[in-house]
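Appendix C reproduces, verbatim, an entry submitted by the partner laboratory led by Prof. M.T., so that reviewers can inspect both the input and the predicted structure.
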Amino acid sequence: MKKYALLLVAPLLVLFSTCKKENAPPEETALSGFLADSTSRFARGNYNRLELGYRFYASRKGRITKIGTRMPESGSYPVTIWDYDTRNIVVQQTIQQSQPNALTLQAITPFAVMPNKKYVISIFYGTASQAAYVIVSRDGSALLPFTKGSVTVVNSQFRYGDASLFPNNADNVGIYGFPEVTFVAD
């Protein structure tokens, strides 16, 4: 009798233990995700002595796990995440993009993101002129702000200079450059 009871209980235990397992939360890439669903268009520009990127925030608690680029040409691109309020660097890493026009993401030491805390992600274009994308709406209207998943991109940020400095100027017509961030909600 105990044998039969054990045969009935064992499958139930397996069923309940698998039901409790949760899937890992999805990775969200705000800019790439938005562009996959939008009618925005890409143009090309050449930039130097310029920090270009965008301000963003997450609506949920989570963490940023990767940063990257999608540039028209392969190369090395210095990418920085800045705390918008303090203007301090949170993460700075050079992304090696080996293929032209290919999204390249690199893992970083994840850091916690609180809801509505604003950050800026940017690429620094040094003294040599480098090709970059300019992302704008097809009809010429303001592209920003937009929300994709848990992440809202507020506006583009930029600053002219010979060194990587917090991009304190804002624009909402388009996004210049293509830095990318990966957010994972808790």
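The helical segments are 2-20, 30-37. Additional entries are available on request from the coordinating office.
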